[in-house]
Structures are given as structure tokens and as C-alpha cells.
Amino acid sequence: MRENISERFLEFTGKIILLTLVILCLSAFTEGDKNWPHPLPCRIKNSMNPELFIMTLGDVKTKLSQGIFYPEKDLIILNDGSEITNYYKDTLEIKYFMPIDKTDFPLPPSGWCSWYYYYQEISADEIKKNAKWLAENLKEYGGIYCQIDDGWQGTGHGLGENRDWTTIDKRFPEGMKELATYIRELGLLPGIWLAPHGQSNREVVDKWNAFLLKEDRTTASDTWEGTYLVDPTASDADEYMKDLFNTMADKWGYDYFKIDGQPIVINEYKNKQSFMKNSDENPVELYRHTLNTIREAIGEKRYLLGCWGIPLDGIGIMNGSRTGGDVFLDWDEGFITAVNATMSYYYLHNIAWYCDPDVMCVRSPLTMDMARAWATLQGLTGQGLMDSDRLMDLSPERVEIMKRVYPAVDIRPLDLFPSKRNKKIWDLKINHLGRNYDIAGCFNYKKNKTDVVHLNWEELGLPANAKVHVFDFWNEEYLGCWEKGYFAHLAPASCQVLTLMVAEEYPQLISTNRHITQGWVDLIKCSFDEKTNTYSGESQVIGNDTYELRFVFPRPGKTYRIKSAVAENLKAVINNHQGWASIRFTSPESKKITWKVIFEPTEIYTYPVNKPYKINVEPLGFNGVKLSWFPNYYLTAGYNVYYNNVLLGMTPESNVILRNLNFLENDFIEIASVWYDGTESQKKTSVKIELDKFYPDEIFLSDIEPNSATAGWGGTPKNDEAIDNRPLIIGDKTYSKGIGTHAVSDIEYSLKGFYKKFTAEVGLDAYSLKCKQGTVVFQVFGDDKLLWESGVIKYSDPVLPINIDISGVDVLRLHVGDAGDGIDYDHANWGNAKIGK
């Protein structure tokens, strides 16, 4: 008895110590949760720019808000005073909506998951190596969960036959309790994966009266979830679930549970109700009952993550959920999959539960640009943040990327609606310690093309006539202070993270390097004394991680430099630049550091810029244009771009893309060189838009840029190739021109009524034929009116030709539906898709 009491006391004490460490680790990151649930600014639809995706952090006020959402009432009051009742439950069809309970989990989890490196080839030794690395390198940054995925259990490998949660794989010789203890001793929280409703061990099934069986005692449900499925109405079902989770939670010591295959469970309960002991009950309510049983077993202080897809019926019980399919170590099948999940369901995040678009990966063969883009997706949205690389193998440069986005913080959407398009501009609006600023993530989703994204100050909700400072977070450099807007130039498969701050007539703290939110997790105090030109503050820094504060200065007129800086007893390194300056210091230990920076006036260097010349105009669809000109030989900061005498913004390179323009006769574009102080060249170079070049008599749709394009799998629709990047083939016919996509897909073009005929040849791709699966429906819409429909097209059907009258159509939309049976293998092709006058 004494030994048992001592063991329990030590276990209890260990939990208290660990909990204290975790609270201390997260204390700097939990600001903003104290008053939840509280009213939120919101948008319920796109406004000026359909590419804009908006999040908030802190008490943000923005003129882009279309109303206020009251979570406890599920009510939106729009700016005009009108009300939308039951917004989530009725408008968004989230039947079980309730505000997320943030009592025990004020932030989403941040840590590591084993699956997307090891898959089922995992061992206790490899888990320990990663856990040790995590504790030594990311714990202080907020990465505290170490989650063991599939492979720890059962007697074999596969997708259903190894769902035995009572048998531990031989690669875990000391058992799962020992492994959880090891993880805890590192100051981390252990997590575990399972598909709890499934079971593959017949002995377990015979022991418990808890499974769906036929009269002959064979299984009534053999799926990916397991050879057998829990019958929620069976007499032992609750006890079976409680026993399973009590074992993992209380006996083994796991704190994070990723329960997989949940949509399968829901569908099986709907389809196999006749095999239940009591078939009269609502199958969804029965499913929720099983979740409540799990919750009862693990308690409120352990994290429950639904997986995969989107088990919406778990809202109100699950702490969070995956919102899309599995990612791959790939741009289109990995990163874009996470983008799709974010666009589709981010409106639930930090309002109904914590969204999880799946893990991020930063290892090779992903380029550094791709790794930064994936980290940016996580950092700017605040969704559940789990990396899935072999951590010990990562280069210092890739580890640095991870450090700048850990942990997930208290970000939530302004946009309370799903998006069918993968938006290019992700605008995180932050209000912290009186600092109001935007962090704009500009994305190029194309793997083989550069792109230019226009940040328009007015479209972002910034004052239309303001000067705005621009700082590049990933490249750690100041890009200037500009009117009206800025053109971000993006390499293929990349992003830029630009911090935007409305300029004042004094030095401003625009950025810190600790975290992508640039102040939220590290700045505790900051203030500026105009009388003494002194900035002072306090920051939470991490030991041996060099900390940097970046300041920007007014434009034009007087400017400044740093005269002196102190950071307690640490060496403060000053770097003065044109228009901005920084200080760096390194603390040998993690602690709060007070600092002070004194500025003094200085002169700014100016250069008399010359005008550019010889503008080349290239049509880009029917409402866009790509401009290029000879770069200036002599010095210049960049170029101001004007459209019909209206300044659009500054581009640092001698080319630009303009989109969403309504071209008319006599439209013209002007380009002026510009210096950092805003001084332009005395003369501009201009070019007139020639409309006949934009609307040829006949053109393939794959040769123009659509207004928007979405696909249900494989990233975005592909021009002149199949969705999986192979040749475009229907039956035995190969197409050099056309569009490859995947259901469900929508592709829109702005024709402005100039064309009369649309022709194409449609059908399922050769890949669907090879797999002998796939059914779709092709549809063509003109200004949202159905013009043509194919009926159900099967994988084996021949090419179907299209010849449609589109006279007067402004917006042409090509739609591919899933024919009502899901989207598996629905690779759809629009061969030789072409419009003519």
C-alpha cells in the first residue's frame, strides 16, 4: 500500500510540475483569451478584392468589417443594422455550432507528429530522438506536443487490419506508458493516434458486446477504420470506449488524442443502422454519444482532435479537427492541400474549434521558398501547428523557419465564410500595445511561373491617401514607404510576408524577428517619447536566440538614425540604414529584457531619378495586362505605376501585372521612376491600351488567365496538361491544348460579351480510365445561367464534343461536379477549350 501511495504521489507531483512548466512556457502567448466569448468584427462576403483573405489578432478595428458577430447568440448585426440570426447553424449549416471553450486550451496545439516522415515505419527509438530534439530546440518556442501516429499498435501493417489497440508493436518493446513518461520527463506533452471506433482483433470483439455484427457473428462493417466497428447502441459500447481511453490517458499518460477516420464512422452509422442493437436512434446523435464517452474518459484537460476530412458533427465536443485530406511532401499535393483546407473551413477556427489543415513540412526536396510559404500558412492563420519532419536531419536554415512561426497564437478569421478560390493575399490585422499594423502574406501558387501581387492600401482597409511602410519579414529588409500600394514580385511556388504600417511623423517600431506576428509573442511593453526621441520597452526573449527590433522613419522631410541603445547588461548592436535602423542583442538565458533606443536627426541621401522608357504591353486574359520596360541604368528605388492618371502603387522591378481592369477605348498607363523619399522622375513614360490586341477572333482558354480557378484535388486546374501534370488524354486522344482539372471544379473567365461561341471536347482523363473509376458532370454557365450540361460522364465514356452559343456572356464558368458519388478519381479534362467571335 505504501508503495502505491508513493507512486501515485510522485505521479501526481510530476503532473503538477509539468503543468507548471507548460503554463510558464505558454504564459507569454495567451494574451487575448480572457474575455472569450466576445463580439467579433466580421465579413460575410468578399468586398473590393476577391483575392483578399483576412484574419485578426487582438482588438482590431477595420473599415472592412461588414458587421459584428456575437458568438454566444450566433448572431450577426450588419453595419446597416440588419440581423442574421443563427448564422453558423443556418447560413453556414454548422448544426452543432457553439463557441469554442478555450478554458483549458487557450491556444491551438504546437508540436510534432510522426506520420508524414515515418508513416507506419516508426519505432520508440525514433520517437525518443525526435522528442529530445523537440525539447532542446523548439520547446521554448512553444512546440510542446510530441504526437505518435499510426504504427505503434497492432500486429501488422495496412489500412484496417492493424486496428488492434490492445497489442503494442514489437518496435515499442517497453510499451506506450514508458514512452509517454520519457516524453513527459523532457517537459513535453505526449500525444497518440488511433481510430478508436474500429477494431481488428477478434478476441477483443468476442470479449466485448460492443461491435456491429451480423446474425452469424461476422462483421457488419469492414472499412479503413477497422475490420469491426463499435455499435454505439450495444450494451458494452460505452464501457469499451471508456476502458480504451482510460488506459491511454490515465494508465499510459497521454494528453493529446488524434482520432482518425471519423467521417467513415458517421457514414457507417447512417448506412449500417439496421445492424445496431437499437436502430431507432439518430445515427449522428449516436456518433456524438461516442465522442461524449471519449470526453468523459479523458476529461476536459486533454486535447481531442478529430481526423480526417471534416467531421463537423464533432463540433462542441472536439477541441479541434483536421479540415482536409492528408498532405504529401509536395507543393501541389501537400502545401496546396493545406491551402484548400484553410480556404474551405477557416471560418470555424478559434470560433467553433481549432482548425488543423494538417501538418507542415519544411524538409528537402521542398525549396526554401516552399518551406517558408508552408510556415507562413501556419503562422498567419494560427491553426494547429504540428511539423512532421525527421527533426534531427533539418538544416539550421530550415530550423530557423520553424522557430519563426512557433507557437500558434490567438488568431481568428475576419472572414466568416468559405472561399472556393485559393486567395493570394492573406492579411493579418494586429492590434497590440497600441501598435496597429498588417502582415500581408502574398502567395504564388504556380510552380513554373513568376507572379506579381498588387497590395492596394484602400482594398486592405488602410487610409487611401496614407504613406505606408513596407518591411519584408523573411528577407529581413525594409522596402520603403509608399503611397496607394505596392507590387510584390514572387518567384514560382513562393510567398512574401510584408509588414505594413501607416507612417507617422516620428520613428516607429515596425517589426521584431522573434515570431512572424512581429511583436505579439515577445513585446510586453513599448512606448515612444517624442520629447526625447526615445523608444523604450520590454521583451520576452529566448536564450541564445539573437533578438532584433526594427524601426522605420518618416518620409519625406526629417529622418533619423539610432544614436544609442541599451538592453540591460547585454551588448546592443546598432545598424543604421537608409530610412530604417535596427538593434540586436542576445541573452544567454530566456528572460524578460528591458531596452531603450535613442534616436537623433540625420540626413537622407537622394538621387535624381530618370524616367523609364519603352513599355511593352502583353494581354493577360481580358481584364489584365503584363507590363515591362527597360530598367534604368542609373539609380532608382523603383517605379510608380499609373492607370488613367491614378497612382496604383510602387513596383521595385521593371515589370508589373495589373488585373481586374475594365479596359475602355483611350485607356493609358504611365510609369515614373521614383526615389526612396517619394520624388519621381520629372517625366513619365506612357502607353495606350489597344483593345483589339486583348480580344482576338479566336483563342484557347488555356492561353488566358481566368478570373478564378479551383479544383477538388491536385491544386489548381492545369493549362495544357492533366491535373496530375501528365499529358491531357481522353480515351485514346491526346490534346496539346486544354484544361485538366478535378471535381469539384469551377473556372471563370471574363469575356465582356465579345465572344459568341464556345467549343471543347470533354471527358474523364486517361488516369480515371486506367483506374476504372470516376464519374462527373460537366456544366457550362454564362452569367450564372446554365447553358449546357453533359449528364453523368463515366470513366469509360468516349469524348463528348461541345459547341455552345455564348453571345453576350460576360462571365463564362466551366463547372465539373462529382455526379453525387464523391470525388475519387474524378480527373476531368476540357480538351481544346476555345472561344470565338
- Structure class: alpha+beta
User: What is the approximate shape?
Assistant: globular
Describe the largest sheet.
8 strands, parallel
Tell me the name of the CATH homologous superfamily of the domain at 110-322: Aldolase class I
Helix content: 10-25%
Here the CATH topology of the domain at 110-322 equals TIM Barrel
The CATH class label of the domain at 110-322 is Alpha Beta
Strand arrangement in the largest pleated sheet: 14-13-12-11-8-7-6-15
CATH architecture designation of the domain at 110-322:
Alpha-Beta Barrel
Descriptive account of the structure:
This protein is of the alpha+beta class. Among the domains are: 1-30; 110-322, Aldolase class I (TIM Barrel, Alpha-Beta Barrel); 613-694, Immunoglobulin-like (Sandwich), CATH 2.60.40.10; 698-836, NPCBM/NEW2 domain (Jelly Rolls), CATH 2.60.120.1060. Helices cover 18% and strands 33% of the residues. It has 14 helices and 51 strands. It is globular and about 90 Å long. The termini are far apart.
Keywords:
837 residues, alpha+beta, TIM Barrel, Immunoglobulin-like, eight-stranded parallel beta sheet, seven-stranded mixed beta sheet, globular, disordered N terminus
Summarize the helices and strands and which ones pair or pack.
Layout: H1 2-26, E1 40-42, E2 52-57, E3 67-70, E4 75-78, E5 83-85, H2 87-91, E6 110-113, H3 115-118, H4 124-137, E7 145-148, H5 175-185, E8 189-194, E9 198-199, H6 202-207, E10 228-229, H7 237-252, E11 256-259, H8 262-271, H9 283-298, E12 303-306, E13 320-322, H10 331-345, E14 354-356, H11 368-381, E15 385-387, H12 396-403, E16 412-413, E17 425-432, E18 435-444, E19 451-456, E20 467-472, E21 477-483, E22 485-490, E23 494-502, E24 508-512, E25 523-529, E26 534-541, E27 547-552, E28 559-566, E29 573-577, E30 580-585, E31 591-602, E32 613-619, E33 625-630, E34 638-643, E35 646-651, E36 655-658, E37 668-674, E38 685-688, H13 691-694, E39 698-700, E40 708-710, E41 718-719, E42 728-730, E43 733-735, E44 738-742, E45 745-750, E46 757-764, H14 766-771, E47 775-782, E48 785-794, E49 800-805, E50 811-817, E51 827-836
Parallel strand pairs: 2-17, 6-7, 6-15, 7-8, 8-11, 11-12, 12-13, 13-14
Antiparallel strand pairs: 1-3, 2-16, 3-4, 4-5, 9-10, 17-18, 18-23, 19-22, 20-21, 20-23, 24-27, 25-26, 26-31, 27-30, 28-31, 29-30, 32-33, 33-36, 34-35, 34-37, 37-38, 39-51, 40-45, 41-44, 42-43, 44-51, 45-50, 46-49, 46-51, 47-48, 47-50
